[in-house]
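Spend some time on the protein that follows and explain the fold to me:
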Amino acid sequence: MVAPQLVAAEDHADEKPVVYLTFDDGPSADSSTEAMLDVLSLYRIKATFFVTGQRARKEPDKIAAILYAGHAIGNHSHTHIALVGETSAGIETEFRKANEAVLAAGGPPLTCYRPPFGLTDSSVRKVGDKMGMAAVKWSVDTRDWQSTTDQLSISASLDSISDGAIVLMHDGPSRRAKTVAALDEWLQQNAHKYQFRALSQCKPYGTSEVFASNDEQEIDLPLEEESIHSLLEKLRSYRFNLHFDGPEQARAASVYGEQLTSVIF
């Protein structure tokens, strides 16, 4: 792993420190993603999931579950290869396929990415900029990706967080029980001390209004009582009138507007 790179945390007025929990390499092939979502829901925490295209393509319902719970999603490439050394066309293909997989699952155009292994160079950054995505790394690595890291070590890493920390954990590709258990136990003791937010760079919809596609009348969706399957179908049956919160959001929607129309609707 390379040295982490910070991104600017958003300003906040609340006196509690802000922490950004992030999860890579999912959605999982087992129940790890669902277990992580359960823990986050228990403590009413919003987080950011950096998903790979190949996993998103295989687990579209889990993409819907992440979005349904109000979390943000970022691009983690399609196949999780090191992008450094790839051609610009190859890098763009990795990002594009991941974006298309999220779109096919009913998700939004993505406005942020995390390069696999944290490896980046000028070519990766140029492609990311061209595609309207901001780069996001981390400031705290729990090292839960190492087989030798145990639950106690993950908890110790979480103890080191400070205001504005971006925490790297994993919900995929599978077998993340120690991460789930460590986070749950740590949050029992510490959740009240912090504000946990999704990364602002990764909130692509901004403020959105949902309209029925046939008569353009605004409606309310009873999301609480719907299954993930029915939610996914409903997302595909509506169009979004977007009010963008920033240039990254507008740029990403412009770049992927054609795919958003053809893949989802």
Notes: The chain has ten helices and ten strands. Residues 146 and 154 are 11 Å apart (CA to CA).
